[in-house]
Structure formats: structure tokens, C-alpha cells
TrEMBL record:
Belongs to the bacterial histone-like protein family. GO terms for biological process: chromosome condensation. One of its GO terms (molecular function) is DNA binding. InterPro entries: Hist_DNA-bd (IPR000119), IHF-like_DNA-bd_dom_sf (IPR010992). Keywords: DNA condensation, DNA-binding. It comes from Malaciobacter halophilus. GO terms for cellular component: cytosol. This is DNA-binding protein. It comes from the Bacteria.
Length: 91
């Protein structure tokens, strides 16, 4: 499912126009992004938690050669699945 299909599904399920559903989905995604940029977490009980994690600088080997490169430190987004979602998917 891509974003457009997701917006269509939200509109149908919530009884909203596609425009209102798009604005709602965009607002949710923007809010999650802004919160993660501030290095805070977003938690939806039963669904899951969005967090950030720091990855330290490291040295990696280039496959097929003996050359090594330095991979810079970075911040990554992470998602931990909540219990209700995990159980629903496992069925």
C-alpha cells in the first residue's frame, strides 16, 4: 500500500473527504517527524513506539575488495512494535 492508497483507505474508514484525509495523514506524519528531529519519542499504546538512535562512526569493508571506508556517525529512526499490533499481525 502506498501513501495515496493509504489516504483513500483512511478517507473511507473515517468517512472523510480525500482532501481531509490527506491533510490528516500529512499532519500525523509531519508531527512524528518533527518530534523525532527533536530526539523525542512518539508512543501509541498497543501500536508501537517511534524513537531515534545514535550510530557511532565505524569502519566498514567494501565487498569484493580489500578497501575499507569510514562510515560517519548518524542518527536513525527506529520503530518498536507494540503488543496489540504484534499479536494482530501474528494471527
Amino acid at each position: 500500500m502506498n501513501k495515496a492508497e493509504f489516504i483513500d483507505a483512511v478517507a473511507a474508514k473515517a468517512g472523510l473527504s480525500k482532501k481531509d484525509a490527506k491533510n490528516s495523514v500529512d499532519a500525523v506524519l509531519d508531527t512524528i517527524t518533527e518530534t523525532l528531529v527533536k530526539r523525542d519519542s512518539v508512543s501509541f499504546i498497543g501500536f508501537g513506539t517511534f524513537t531515534t538512535s545514535e550510530r557511532a562512526e565505524r569502519t566498514a569493508k567494501v565487498p569484493g575488495t580489500d578497501r575499507t571506508v569510514t562510515v560517519p556517525a548518524t542518527t536513525v529512526a527506529k520503530f518498536k512494535v507494540g503488543k496489540a499490533l504484534k499479536e494482530a499481525v501474528a494471527k
